[in-house]
From TrEMBL:
Gene responsible for this protein: rnz
GO molecular function: 3'-tRNA processing endoribonuclease activity
Top enzyme category: hydrolase
Source organism, top-level taxon: Bacteria
Name of this protein: Ribonuclease Z
Length: 302
């Protein structure tokens, strides 16, 4: 499964109902945390996300609503006996902050905390493993801020059951077929792999656009998203306020999703001055019909 679960969908000020930004990306058994606003660790517990499984944390920028929960989470991981390394990606100042907090508490973590600084030169691929590629790109915000794109490659070919039956291929050989191997029958004749399989499913891509003013120059980074997250701090009547604070509105996020050819748009980072979220959806849908609200505790399949 490739999916994202929302832990926080609010902007700067937490409210009893809505937390600042944090999301968990799940791919098979791997978990990655995207931003870590205040209260993230209690949200992880509330929605039964296994924090021990988090291997990577991506912090978009150093506004507190995106990282004030990080030191608490790291501290708890150590108290709970974590020994696996944890890698945090974030702006360079984040390491100074974490190091200071740990030093003044005389805390020695039980696990290795690795830090990868993000700078404008980091734009592009951050790392790749067997199936996933993670990239970052700068957004336009009041302080340096980065969005992240997660692409999952599907490498396994898909078995065509009628064909494998017709050629009498034993199921024990199916994993080799999925890897692209031909099948050799007892009489020595060869069953070509593409007679009995289809190409792998296409790659899936999630793009997290972090905080940003409306900026069409982001479009190349946002392209081909199966699911694109974009902030909508304000409804569209507050365009000027959004621009002054380097944030975006509903119509702006929906417009960008259309320009980028996204298949679905997920909106969040709502200003705490709003108690109702339905108007956000109502403003986006006429511009980009496949829009969904980022709701806390909800999981969106990518
Ligand atoms: Zn923010
Ligand atoms: Zn911000």
């Amino acid at each position: 499964m490739f999916a994202v679960t929302i832990l926080g969908n609010n902007s700067a000020i937490p409210t009893p109902e809505r937390h600042p930004t944090a999301q968990v990306l799940t791919y098979n058994d791997q978990l990655m945390l995207i931003d870590c606003g205040e209260g993230t660790q209690t949200q992880l517990a509330k929605y039964k996300v296994r924090r021990g499984k988090i291997r990577y944390i991506f912090i978009s920028h150093l506004h507190g609503d995106h990282y004030f929960g990080l030191i608490g989470l790291i501290n708890s991981m150590s108290l709970l006996g974590r020994i696996e390394p944890l890698t945090v990606f974030g702006p360079p100042g984040l390491w100074d902050i974490l190091e200071l907090q740990l030093r003044h508490a005389a805390t020695t973590l039980r696990f290795e905390l690795q830090f990868q600084p993000l700078t404008p030169e980091s734009a592009g691929v951050l790392f790749q493993d067997k199936d996933m590629e993670v990239s970052c790109f700068p957004t336009r915000h009041r302080i340096p801020c980065y969005g992240f794109a997660f692409s999952v490659q599907r490498r396994k070919r898909r078995i065509i059951p009628e064909q494998t039956r017709a050629y009498e291929i034993p199921s024990a050989f199916f994993s080799h077929l999925a890897d692209g191997e031909d099948y050799i029958r007892k009489d020595g004749t060869i069953v070509k792999n593409d007679w009995v399989t289809l190409p792998p499913n296409p790659a899936r891509r999630y793009v997290y656009c972090a905080d940003s003013i409306y900026d069409e120059e982001l479009v190349p980074w946002l392209q081909d998203a199966d699911l694109m997250y974009h902030e909508t701090t304000y409804l569209d009547d507050l365009r000027q306020r959004a621009a002054d604070r380097y944030h975006s509105t509903t119509v702006q996020a929906a417009t960008l999703a259309g320009m980028a050819g996204a298949r679905r748009l997920l909106i969040g980072h709502f200003s705490s001055k709003y108690t109702e979220l339905q108007p956000f959806l109502d403003e986006c849908i006429p511009v980009f019909p496949n829009t969904e609200l980022a709701l806390e505790g909800a999981t969106y399949i990518i």
